[in-house]
Amino acid sequence: METYPYQVVFDLFLIFGKNNRIVDRTCRQFNLKYPNLPQMTKGKLSRNNFLNYGQVMRPALRIKPITENEDIIINTLGYFQVYPRASIRAATNDLGISYSSLQRILCKNKLHPYKFIRLQKLYPGDYVCRINFCEELLVNTQENRNLKKK
């Protein structure tokens, strides 16, 4: 990238901010404002990333790795062995670990933080819910004949 005076680079930053961080518009306005300087192109601007003066684009987000402390992992797994019905929130309060770290530890050890219910039979409350649903559906179809077409 050609060296530009500091005032021109500062103006380039301002133009970049005024154009909502859109590189195409920034290059176009820069070239209109400074026709006597070498043309600024999108490739030139994004490739060099203002190495001498700062960054144009945001740096890539990196997931922060959890602390690989064996004691924390063993305590977490032991906690869920002793209290299998405990929630993650309760475990974070008891163990003093952040929610996301606890989720990562559980995921890494292939433990799922949800309750699994097998539905091989109907429960006593299911009958009442089904009857209520069928009655409500019957009333709605009688009131509105085009209900099926919606």
End-to-end C-alpha gap: 61 Å
SS-based class: mainly alpha
Number of strands: 0
Let me know the largest β-sheet. none
Mean pLDDT rating? 79
Rg over C-alpha atoms, rounded to the nearest angstrom: 30 Å
- String of helices and strands: HHHHHHH
Proportion in helices: 40-55%
| Beta-strand percent range | under 5%
- pLDDT < 50 runs, ≥5 residues: none
Q: Specify the overall morphology.
A: flat
* Count, helices: 7
Keywords summarizing the entry:
150 residues; mainly alpha; 7 helices; flat
Describe this protein's structure:
- This is DUF4817 domain-containing protein.
- It comes from Hypothenemus hampei.
- The protein has helices at 6-18, 23-33, 42-48, 70-82, 88-95, 99-108, 124-143.
- The chain has 150 residues and is mostly helical.
- It has a domain at 1-62.
- Helix 1 crosses helix 2 (23-33).
- The two termini are 61 Å apart.
Topology record:
Blueprint: H1 6-18, H2 23-33, H3 42-48, H4 70-82, H5 88-95, H6 99-108, H7 124-143
Summarize the structure in short.
The chain has helices at 6-18, 23-33, 42-48, 70-82, 88-95, 99-108, 124-143.
